[in-house]
Amino acid sequence: xxxxxxxxxxxxxxxxxxxxxxxxxxxxxxxxxxxxxxxxxxxxxxxxxxxxxxxxxxxxxxxxxxxxxxxxxxxxxxxxxxxxxxxxxxxxxxxxxxxxxxxxxxxxxxxxxxxxxxxxxxxxxxxxxxxxxxxxxxxxxxxxxxxxxxxxxxxxxxxxxxxxxxxxxxxxxxxxxxxxxxxxxxxxxxxxxxxxxxxxxxxxxxxxxxxxxxxxxxxxxxxxxxxxxxxxxxxxxx
Length: 238
Known about the structure:
The chain is mostly helical. The protein has helices spanning about 10-45, 50-75, 90-115, 125-155, 185-190, 190-215, 220-235.
């Protein structure tokens, strides 16, 4: 209010306050949805030794995610007397918060599906091993693209250029490496952050498409083929 939104009304403030409050309450509900059933299943002896390790890791990650969220929000409330920028949370902490959420979600889904769906016993052919390695590489690329999106959001970098495929009138903007030292541009220059996100996004879609085309040459179970097809559909929609 002091730095930016001088004319904000109490009603407008309540709107963003309730958005933040709902997000916190939802996060706490997620934490209870993990911890309470886990404690019950543990007490009843329904968890195997390996699964106990998974449960502890997931519950720990839920708690860590909450602490990281608080740490992120705190950065947006700190006084920055040497900065003339508009108040915002640290893009580094925002990316960490999003990254840990993606890890938590993926680990939860992987654990749940491993219990619900028995693993296919397939012959370890050279093609299948290559497909698995390529799938892991594509996963890492998508994760990196999502993290770069957090930097775009944290720096409001999406407002810098709104044309595609060019950025303004150029393929490569003039201010791509305006900051010094050069490494700062990757994380703090809004133009570079948006440029990187575009390149990573295009690379992710290309990698998913290549993964799909490669999977068509291999005899795969119906469930696996459906997963690869769904991945391509979601990538195109995204």
